[in-house]
Amino acid sequence: MPYMISWITVALFNVSIFSGLVVAFVYKPSLAYESVQKLTFLVPYGDIFRELHYFSSEAFLVMTLVHVVLELRKKEIVISATSWNYSLLALGALFFVMFTGYVLKADLSGLSAGEVALSLLKQTPGMNFFLPLFEDTSLFVWKFYLWHILFLPIILVYALLLHVKTFRTKMWSIGLGVSVLCMVFFTMPRDIAPDMMGVHVTGPWFFKGAENLLMFGIHPVVVDVVMFFPFALLVCYFYKPFWRTGIRIVLILWSVAYAIFSFI
Fold first, then answer.
1. Which of 10, 192, 238, 244 places its Cα 20 to 30 Å from the Cα of 232?
2. What average pLDDT does the structure give for the chain?
3. Residue 158 phi/psi, 5° resolution?
4. 201 in helix, strand or coil?
């Protein structure tokens, strides 16, 4: 079962990449929101490819987290340190590529999520060094766009290749089927016009906990620590075998606490 989950996860990634290439032909950073609306309502089958890209990416993230949970349930780790390290790199790159994709839809919720992220970088000592990599005063989404379609996919593909070693093409049809089922049974969040006032907006579901912590007045440095804490635990999980039981418990407690803050 864990091996099946792994291959379906990789298959979903391939569907996400393919559908993203189609979307990229229409998307224009200089007219971000307008090009997304054009893709959704005017381009033939554009809405289908957009939903396929969205749901395959969301399913890829969910299945990746399931894969991580299944790996942590094993009594022994059978992969090398190199493979483990690259798996963590892939996990981090995945969250970043999902977040930048959310910003790129350039509606009110996407732009607001981007502003919150930039504000976190500005207010965190040491992190503001990375601000020029994301902030662009002339075109807000431009650097998010570069990260989403170029840098992060390269990092993600490279890390996955070193972690997975090979790809099973026969699983791609299953990944496509899972994505289509998601399109049938779920609805993609609606776009909110950037100039709309008095509307409650939120970031992507995995970022809501951080947003709520900031709303409660928690210092940005603490929020950053909360967000990166599970990655630090996963690093220790491999290199500190005697701590693994305790690390599992702490990860469960962190997940429950973060979920509570996400849905408050």
1. 10
2. 92
3. -60, -45
4. coil
Query: Residues in the chain, how many?
Result: 264
pLDDT digits (tens, 9 = 90+) for 181-210: 999 999 999 999 999 888 888 899 999 999
**Angle at the Cα of 159 (from 156 to 164), degrees rounded to 5?**
115
Q: Which tens digits make up the pLDDT trace of 131-158?
A: 999 999 889 999 999 999 999 999 999 9
144 within 8 A of 96, measured Cβ to Cβ: no
For domain 2-204, say whether CATH 1.20.810.10 is its number.
yes
Q: What percent of the chain has pLDDT over 90?
A: 76
Element (H, E) at 176: helix 172-185
Residue 239 in tokens: 């290199």
* Closest-CA residue to 106 (of 235, 8, 192, 230): 192
At residue 45, what are phi and psi to the nearest 5 degrees?
A: 65, 10
Half-sphere exposure at residue 174, Cβ-oriented, CA atoms within 13 angstroms: 13
